[in-house]
Structures are given as C-alpha cells and as structure tokens.
Design brief:
single chain, 379 residues, alpha/beta, Arc Repressor Mutant, subunit A, Rossmann fold, 5-stranded parallel β-sheet, 3-stranded antiparallel β-sheet, 47% helix, flat
C-alpha cells in the first residue's frame, strides 16, 4: 500500500489549513493552494476595495466559472454605497486564505505558470489584449500611443469568448482577423493579431514566443487592477524571464471615448455615418457584413423608421430641462424599443383584416395600454 501513502502525501501537499479544528461540530477548514482563479482575485482585492464590476472583469480575463463569485462570498466583506454599487474587500477568512497559500504558491510557482518558451522572443513588441467587437478608432488611438512611446510595433491578442454572446461578442475570430488584416495595411505599426483563450500572463507569453517578446502591455484604466497584479508580480516576472523593461502602459479613458458598444449600436440602428465616424477607414467595407450578423431592425419599405432618429428629437421644448436624464441611458436601445412599437402598429394598420374604421379606436387603445404600462413600471 506504499503507493497509497505517496498519493496521500501528494494530496496534502496541495492543501493548507486556514482554520484549526475546535470540536467535531466545528472541524478544521483546508483550502487548495492550486486554485488559480482564487489566487488571482485575492491578489487583486488585497490592495483595497474593488467594485463588483471590476471583480467580474478579472474573472472574465481568467475564464472563471460564471458562478465563482456567488460560490466564494465568504472570502469577502461586501458593502454597498448609496448608489447601489457593491464593493469587495478581503474578509478575515479571505485574508487567512491569502496568507496561508501565498508562501506555498510562491515556492510552487513553476506549477502555476505554463512557460513552454522560457527564452525571450526574437522581436520586441508592444501588446494589447481585448475582445475588439469590433475594432474602433479608439483602439487605433491606443495602438498608436504605444507605438509612439518606444517605436515598437503592436501585437494584438484577440481573447476568444466561450459561448457566443449576440450582445457583447457577436463577431468571431475569423472576421476579426480579416478586419485586422485590412487595418494593418492602413497602419504599418500593427504587427499581427493572435487568438488566445484568456488574458492570463502565461497564456500571452506562450502565444507570443518564440517569435515575439512583449515590452509594453497596454490596458485601459478599468483593467489596471487585473493586469497590473500580473505584470508587477516579481515571481511571475522571474519565472517568465521577461524583458527588464517589460511594464504596463495605462490608457486613461473618459466617457467621451469611442467604445465598441457604441459602434454596435450604430450598426443596429443602421446609422452608417456614425459607424464610419467611429471606425478606421480600412474596415468601412465590413459595414454590411457586421450589420447582418447583428440582425438589426430592417427598414420596411412602407415605414419611415422614426426610431432611427436621435432620441432627443422626440423631446419637446418644454421638457428640455430633463434631457440629461434620458441621455445617460442607452439611447439607441430606447429608440429601437420605440421603433418596434411603431413597426407592430404599422403591420396591423396595413394588414388585410384591418378596416379604416378600426384605426382610430385601436390607436386610442394602444396609447392607453402604453400609458398603463408606464404607470405600473416606470416609477
């Protein structure tokens, strides 16, 4: 039975006790030292408070299970401010787990990181990681900033999603690569695009080497916590053998920045002018292809699509004082919702069974139904 003893030793080496046993009713608590997702999150939260949105972004980068946060709430103290924003800090238990696993993980870092190419890559580059759904002029501006920082070309890492998400990840890697190829002809500082399963640092270096050696890792302010914790971790840097100049490059963003979601909204409401204003000229020819994938509302030849107008055009002069409240909402979605009501109305009004005498009472009934819905739901 010697082999069973060896197996037991192997298992216990992977666990540490974070709470000693008091009685049978209160047994000891052991945790695994090899929980990669937990270790990344605890490292990021240890610096202070993170919002729920920031933690979800970190979990997304390391391809965590969608229920990970709900299953591990005991690791955190959770508070909520007046605006309803949840903030997470380490609970006493979370702190014990982090402290108990830290030494073991630092000693066993060779198991935590996969380094198939320990030697530096042949060509120094800057890198940027994202989903690019689709590419925008905002992305290009970031790439150009990095290039001007040190004169090195930019390698883009396309993070492959799990299940297709028609709202946030509608475009696949093949289409993204086709767009990037066009962009690279317009912007010579773009080197190549590489598809990766996640944004973990060892995954990126494994994909870059032996051809490329990252020197700058560009990221937006919203990714500073998750990427910075990997870039600046001494044990990671030593194990990967990164370039001495390897560092993060923060891109400060404001509400005025172009986002991929704004571009997708332009596609949905068939606003080609807005699309071209927010995207590189080299991918303007992809407009119809991208639009067909999103399956936007098609314009009916008998209907003037009033919903394609900016929502503030529907606001009269007397209510201009309140426009600011509406503008902070997702206006294209609101406009599409209003347009869908119009489409259904026009279909019924022009239908073969609709009599002219039915239109006025039906109009009154529809308006009444909408008024009742607003009173019940918009409070």
């Amino acid at each position: 039975m010697n082999n069973l003893k060896k197996l037991e030793n192997f298992i216990t080496e992977k666990k540490v006790t974070v709470k000693r046993r008091y009685t049978e009713k209160y047994p000891a608590k052991n945790v695994s030292t090899a929980a990669r997702v937990r270790n990344v999150v605890l490292d990021a939260v240890a610096d202070g408070h993170l919002t729920e949105e920031e933690i979800q972004k970190i979990l997304s980068e390391v391809s965590a299970h969608k229920r990970w946060l709900n299953r591990n709430t005991n690791l955190f103290n959770i508070s909520e401010d007046e605006s309803g924003v949840k903030r997470y800090s380490l609970s006493p238990y979370g702190t014990r787990v982090k402290n108990a696993t830290r030494v073991v993980n630092e000693e066993a870092i060779t198991e935590a990181l996969k380094v198939p190419h320990p030697k530096p890559g042949l060509k120094k580059v800057n890198m940027f990681v994202g989903r690019f759904q689709p590419f925008t002029l905002g992305h290009v501006k970031v790439f150009e900033q990095m290039y001007k920082e040190n004169g090195l070309p930019v390698v883009v890492f396309l993070v492959r999603g799990g299940n297709p998400d028609p709202e946030k990840r509608p475009f696949d890697e093949t289409l993204q690569q086709a767009m990037f190829a066009k962009m690279a002809k317009q912007y010579p500082f773009l080197e190549t695009a590489i598809v990766v399963p996640n944004g973990a640092i060892d995954t990126l270096f494994a994909a870059a080497r032996p051809t490329y050696e990252p020197v700058l890792w560009g990221y937006g302010t919203d990714r500073k916590k998750s990427y910075g914790s990997m870039i600046n971790k001494d044990t990671y840097r030593e194990q990967l053998g990164v370039d001495p100049d390897f560092s993060g490059y923060e891109i400060f963003r404001t509400d005025d920045n172009i986002s991929a979601s704004k571009v997708r909204n332009a596609l949905k409401i068939d606003d080609e002018k807005a699309f071209k204003k927010m995207t590189p000229k080299s991918i303007h020819s992809f407009y119809k292809t991208l639009q067909d994938i999103l399956q936007p509302i098609k314009e009916n030849k008998n209907i003037k699509m009033k919903n394609l107008k900016p929502l503030n055009e529907f606001v009269n002069e007397e209510s201009k004082v309140n426009e600011e409240y509406v503008e902070v909402m997702d206006m294209p979605k609101l406009a599409n919702a209003l347009g869908e009501i119009q489409i259904q109305w026009e279909k019924w009004k022009n239908g073969p069974l609709t009599e002219p005498s039915d239109i006025r009472p039906a109009q009154k009934e529809l308006k009444g139904w909408i008024d009742r819905w607003f009173k019940q739901n918009i409070k």
